[in-house]
Amino acid sequence: MTNQQNQQQTTENTTEQTSGSSNANSLELPDVESVLAEAEAAVGQCCVMHGSFVQYANIAGQKVSEIRSTFRSGWSISDKAKALVRGKEVDENYQLLQGETLEFAKQSGVKG
Amino acid sequence: MKTPTKIKIIGLGGIGGVLANSISRFIGNHPDYDANSTGSTVCDIVLIDGDRFETGNIDRQDFENISNKAQEKVRMLSKKHPRVLFECVPEYITEDNVIMNIRENDVVLMCVDNHSTRRLVAERCEELDNIVLISGGNDEIDGNVQIHIKEGGFDITPSILKYHPEIAEAEGDNPGEEDLEREGCEQQMNTTPQIIQANEMAANLMSLTFRNWANGNVDYSEIYFDIDNVSMLKYSLEMRPV
């Protein structure tokens, strides 16, 4: 038996075992297409961070000022909080690119 | 595991008091810190604070006597961890003593209650070639921990000043400066309340960050936390480049 035949045999065995196991325990296998669709959507999402808060959202193309306005009250973002992308300050008109992470820098705690 | 010879803990209030207990227990009982023929550990712990314990802070701080915090903490910890050699510096960190107190190869755990002292210590660490500075602070319900590592003159993680202008530009609130009329801790407590859980969260994250550094496992420069939302987030070196 060649290596290729061996691999094919192994694959068939694995498939049979998986199917058998699935039937026996009534497990629902994940819908591959929906998983891939979710992953594809996630790839295009941007990330917004402020302190311990983080949110992924479809906001590519939006300006920093718009994103700040969206998150300002819920996250208590100060107007003075600098906007950073990969550690570099960006201005309020900067438009977020697909997959980028925007941080509104939070000040350090003072007390100890 | 990395085994520094000196750990300096600056500030022994709500964060530093908890951290001193945790680090002492860790150093005093971890086999990698076992010493030599003298029976002591390979690492000494230096406690630095010019403040006195005040009864108004009893809800957050663990002291047996009203006296200087560094002296009292050394007395208490020496009894619990006899293998660890503790040293006491009952002074605030100032321009005059920062060079003497922060030196090459130290691991500095900074738990002070003002940004001026943070700036002073951070600037001193920037001057050195080999140093680890872990700094923690909190407000009422949230806070953060930062780590600056320098090895062989190179920054492995960014200085704690780089992304925090509020620290880099701070002045006028160092209690050790002569012309400052220090607002007592008791008075400060009445105006700006602190919560023990926020102090403990900061202390535990500092202790964890020390362990991660000792294991060569630090892939972040900062952690933020929020106790009301029970949330915590670490900022990678990609987010906060050197």
Secondary structure elements and pairings:
The complex is a heterodimer of chains A (112) and B (242).
Chain A: H1 3-25, H2 32-44, E1 46-50, E2 53-57, H3 64-75, E3 83-85, E4 88-89, E5 101-104
Parallel strand pairs in A: 1-5
Antiparallel strand pairs in A: 1-2, 3-4, 3-5
Chain B: E1 6-10, H1 14-29, E2 44-48, H2 69-80, E3 86-89, H3 98-101, E4 107-110, H4 115-127, E5 131-138, E6 142-151, E7 154-155, H5 165-168, H6 185-191, H7 196-214, E8 220-226, E9 231-236
Parallel strand pairs in B: 1-2, 1-4, 2-3, 4-5
Antiparallel strand pairs in B: 5-6, 6-7, 6-8, 8-9
Account of the 3D structure:
The complex is a heterodimer of chains A (112) and B (242). With 112 residues, chain A is α+β, with helices and mostly antiparallel strands. Chain A folds into 2 domains: 27 residues; 66 residues, Phosphatidylinositol 3-kinase Catalytic Subunit, Chain A, domain 1 (Ubiquitin-like (UB roll)), CATH 3.10.20.90. In chain A, 43% of the residues lie in helices and 17% in strands. Chain A has 3 helices and 5 strands. Chain A has a 5-stranded mixed sheet. Chain B is an alpha/beta fold and 242 residues long. Chain B has one domain: NAD(P)-binding Rossmann-like Domain (Rossmann fold), CATH 3.40.50.720. Chain B contains 7 helices and 9 strands, in the order E-H-E-H-E-H-E-H-E-E-E-H-H-H-E-E. In chain B, a hairpin with a 4-residue loop joins strand 8 and strand 9. The model of chain B has no long low-confidence stretch (mean pLDDT 92). Chains A and B meet through loops of A and helix 1, strand 5, strand 6, helix 7 and strand 8 of B.
Descriptive key words:
heterodimer, A: 112 residues, alpha+beta, Ubiquitin-like (UB roll), 2 domains, five-stranded mixed β-sheet, 3 helices, 43% helix, 17% strand, elongated, B: 242 residues, alpha/beta, Rossmann fold, nine-stranded mixed β-sheet, 7 helices, globular
